[in-house]
Structures are given as structure tokens and as C-alpha cells.
Amino acid sequence: MSIKFPTVDQLSKNLMITLLRFPLTVFAAFVGTYYALLINESGVSRIEELNYIRLLMTAGFGLSLTLAIALYLERKAPNRLTRIIANLLGIGLLSLYYYQLVDSVDESEALQFVVLNIACHLLVSFSPFVVKNETNGFWQFNERIFTRFLTASLYTVVLWLGLAGALAAIDNLFDVNINGRNYFRMWIVLVGLFNTVFFLAGIPKDFESLNTSIAYPKGLKLFTQFVLLPLVVIYLVILYAYFGKIIVLWTLPQGWVSWLVNGFSVAGILALLLIYPIRNNDENKWVNTFTRWFFIALLPLIILLFISIGLRVSQYGITENRYYILAVAVWLLIMAIYFILKGFNQIKIVPISLSLFMLVSVIGPFNATNTGVRSQLNRLDHILTEQNLLVDGKIVPLKEKETFSSVEASNIQSILNYLDDRKALLKLQPYFSFQLDTFLMDEETDYTRTENGESIKLKYEQLRWSDGDSKILKYMGLHNFTDIFEEATRAADYEYYNLETPDDETINIGGFDNMIPVNIYNSLGSADDLNDSTKSFKILFNSNRDSLLVYKNRNLETSFGLVQLLKKTNDDELEKHENLRLTALSSSNLFLLQITEIDGNNEDGKKQVNQLQGYLLWKKKE
Questions:
Q1: Where would you tag: which of 58, 84, 188, 326 has the fewest CB atoms within 10 A of its CB?
Q2: Please, are residues 246 and 253 in contact by the beta-carbon 8 Å criterion?
Q3: Is 268:290 a contact under the CB 8 Å cutoff?
Q4: Domain residue limits, the chain
Q5: DSSP states of 434-487
Q6: Which of the 8 DSSP states describes residue 264?
Q7: Dist. CA 265–CA 80, nearest whole Å
Q8: Average pLDDT over residues 426-431
Q9: pLDDT per residue over 509-529, tens digit each?
């Protein structure tokens, strides 16, 4: 069998067809690649880097958005004016997205970027089928583009490995001294341009033929039937066993069960989507039965999900993470009821509804960040009112020596930190009789930056960093109480202990001939630690930090086990000096370790030593 490789003319023709078919998508890939390369360069100022990141994020968003618009227009085949308006609308949305990004990309904006991209990728999956009810064509189209994506990713990785190996060969064989940055530059170009164009070139264009296709990859069937679905069943059994435990013991569900239910539900729906085309085959009649009972079995788990996330919201308010868990729970409930009533036929409803949910979560007044900020503001108001920190609606600082709940102080600190991270501290203005933004900006700090040679005074909302939450907490007089809470939390988590002998206590050498001081802090045994030829003895912790290893001339001489000592660290008898003495033997010497101070923690039920001070004494064995 002969293999026919494509000619240069064919490759250039296919490239031109792809460029003409998806010009804006290719342009977004080029822009993203260009600014990714600039970010990777040295000598880029912080302000330039932040702007490049904004442009890179906009280009990344533009990849999926422009592709979805192009596929929709291609299928709808509107007139030239409609095409221009639709593309201008897409460019306008990208411009709005760019300008709403602040100078620094914080956690909420990064999450918003991820959610927007998922929403637009889902939009790509059904955009050619919005105007046509072709369920089989919809499935075949997504199977083709997913396969193309995997192929493009494989080709990109193999091509980069090959080119990187070639560069390394040139570098080592011809002493060319190739800059190490070139490897990553090459990766950026391949992922940004080659991978994108190769993927776009394989997107199906004959949508009508897709709807009549009966092709189904055998490997996909084997993976779904013998890997994915069995895993779904296993997790279903685990979750129902846990659900039964909650009912029998009448206990509250753990927080992480929310992620498990969400993951199980999404995996189950994905498995049903993958096996959808062959559900009516004679040998696969069980699929329809499994599908019906899957969504019925999902309902109790969705109730468990609502209880779990509801408990966290009632205790700590809404944050972006809890918002999305709650949104997925609502979406799952709608999907389960819909498919129980209507049957698992209109599978387009899955990506369409999920995409709409995600768009609502980042656009408009009820998006995740705005909802989280409102929830935390309400929670703060409730705490301030309960703790009598408000007079006529204004915050009254706590006087010195007044008592206050360290737990509530810590809660206030976490709320202020959350608001500060989302540039929302100025929403607290109604609680203060003075200008909050002026108070939050230090008089001695220069809050200006230079753009195009012009010095621009920044507002508080434009700062890339701030400690506004700490300033407000200190103004309220609560900073000392949060320190108390953090110390108590650490003590509870790690059970810190500290034992020491009085400073005026004398050391009883008891007939020993030699003595050296010992002072070890988190020092573990390693060859490098033993290379000091000026000392004949070297003392180190073992890897578990529950024994001391004594080396003489780089050879292990003896060791002191600390396990029995650590088991008694809470006993009153260990306050006595003589009980902080350990003995050990070597082939020629008797050793005594006199401990003057020892401290550590109990982590995961196991006690460890962090620091040990004292003296090592030894004499010849009799």
C-alpha cells in the first residue's frame, strides 16, 4: 500500500481555504501568540506585562467566540451585511471584555476567563445546529471536532519534540549556543498558530451529510461501556452508601461531597452522550433503561448536594466557588427533571443550557462575583450588628482592653480580605463617616504611574496591590483578636508543644569526659551536611524528625530515639530536668544527650520535633 503525501500546492491551498473560512479566528490566534511571546521576553515592565496579559486573555476568548460566530453564519448563509454586523458584534464584545479587565488579573477575573471560555466552547458545539434540528448531525459534528482536537494536540507535541531535539543537536554538535528561551518560544508558536490552524482545517463543512452518517468509533464504544459507565456505577454505589449513612446516623454531609456529586453527575451525562447514537441498536437496548434510571437515581443525590452547599452558604456566605457549585446543582436538577419527563432525545439541550448558565454567571448583575460580594456584605452587616460594633449605622472602633470574640474577628478579617481581593472595599463607605478611599491610601506612598510620558494619579480601585483590609481591621481595633484566633487555630491543628529547663539549672556531667553543645532546627540528615571536616561529630534529625542521628567523621556512630520522649510531652513529669536525658551506645562510646529545650508539633496524629537544644556528652565504654 502506497502512502500519498500532500504536495506543497495542496498544503498552501488548504491553508488559504482555512484562512478565508475563519479569518477572525486565525487573527485571534496570531494576536494571542504574539503577546504570549512578548510576555515571555525579559525586560518587559510590570505595566506592559499586565496589558499583554489582558490582550492575551481577550485573544483566547476571541478564539472560541469568533469560531462559534463563523460556524453559525456558515450554516445560516445570511447576506453580506448580516455577516458584517454579526462579526462586528463579536469584535465589540471582545473590546468590552478587554476594557472591563482591570490592570491586575485577580482570582475572580481568572475564574471568569475560564468560565467564559467553557461557555464559548460549548457555543461552538451547537452553533451550526441552532437553526436546524439535526440531533445525529450535532453528535457527529462534535465527535469529528473532538477527534480533530486530539489529533492536532498529538501532532503539536510530536512536532515540538522533534524540533526541540533538532535545536539541541545543533546546539551541542556545532556549539551554536542557542538561547534556552527559544524552546519555549517555539512551543508558543506551535500551540498558538500551528495547532489552531491544523484544528480549524479539519472542521467539517458538509453539515447535511453529517446528519445521515452512521459512523461510530469502536474505541469510543469500548471506552464508554467498559471504562466510563462502570466508574459511574461505582461512584453511584459509594454516594448512595454515604447518603444512607447520613440518614441512619442523622449527620450533616461533608463539604467535599458537593464536588463528588458534581463530578459523578457530569461523568454520567457525558457517558450517555458518548453512547447516544447506538442506544437503539438491538445489542444496546439496556442503554435506554440505564438512562431513565440514571436520572431518577440522580434526584436524591442532587438533594444531598443542595443540603451540603446550603450548609456552607448559611455559615460562610456565597463565594464564587459556592456560587458555581450551587449553579451546577440547579442545572442538574433541571436536566434530571427534563430528561425524566421528555426522554434522552434532545441532547442539544445539554450544551445549550449549560452555556446559558455559564454566561449568566459572568454577565449581568447576578454574576458570581457580584453575588459573592453582596452575600459577604450582608454577612458582615449581620456580624457587626450582633457584636454591637454599629452606632447609627457607622462602625465604632473597639476600645483598648475591651474583649471581643476572636472567632468573629477572624470572620470579619476573611470578609474584608475577600472584598479587598475583588476591589470592593469601597462598598463599605456607608459604614464610615469619612472618605474611605482617602483613608486606605497612605499619604507617604506615591500612587502614580507613567503612561506615554505622562504621570497619572491612580484611584484606589486601580491599585494592583493594597492592604486595605488590614487598615480597616486595625481601625476597628480587631487585629489583635485575629492574631489570638490564628494562634489558637494553629495550636488546635498541630498541638504545638515546648519543653525547657530553667536557665539556672546546672548540667550534671556525671563522669563523662567530653561535651559539645547541640542546637538543631529542622536539620535533616544529608551528605552535604556531613562535609564539614572541622567537626568530628555531626548531629541531625532523621527524615521523620523523631530520632537524632550522631555521625563521627561522616560515619553513623549512634542514634537517639525520641519516640518515647515525644509520647510523654504532655506529662507533668517531663517538666523535671532529669527526664530530658537520653542515653545511647556505640561500639566504643557511651553517649548522653542532655536536652535543655525541645519543641515541635503533632501533625496527622504523629509527633515531630522542630527544634532541639542541649548538650552531647560521651566517654569510653568500660
A1: 84
A2: yes
A3: no
A4: 8-212, 218-307+327-363, 370-494, 497-620
A5: S-HHHHHS-TTS--EEEETTEEEEPPGGG-S---HHHHHHHHHT-HHHHHHHHH
A6: H
A7: 43
A8: 93
A9: 667 888 888 888 765 544 334
